[in-house]
Fold this sequence. Notes:
By secondary structure, this protein is mainly alpha-helical.
Amino acid sequence: xxxxxxxxxGFESLVLALVTPVMISVADVRPxxxxxxxxxxxxxxxxxxxxxxxxxxYVLGWVVQVGAVGxxxxxxxxxxxxxxxxxxxxxxxxxxxxxEEAKRAHTG
Length: 108
């Protein structure tokens, strides 16, 4: 589960960082705010990736998902991208648990 979740958060951090110039140029958000929000969420995604050994990493991952979807109120395309990554996040958790259960059943 952890490896799938880390892949989702890693790619999401790249997308969140790349939203910064879009917020500045298209949505006319002040650069300081755009950088703080977008790069902040990208860094939070990377921190969550590093903390996936603990429950707190998954909680932070959910915070990142909510933040990514919330960016859609400023940049509407982020509703689509945020929901896509949230779906990937849910799939990573569900499939990861199934894989871990299958491994336990096979070895146990």
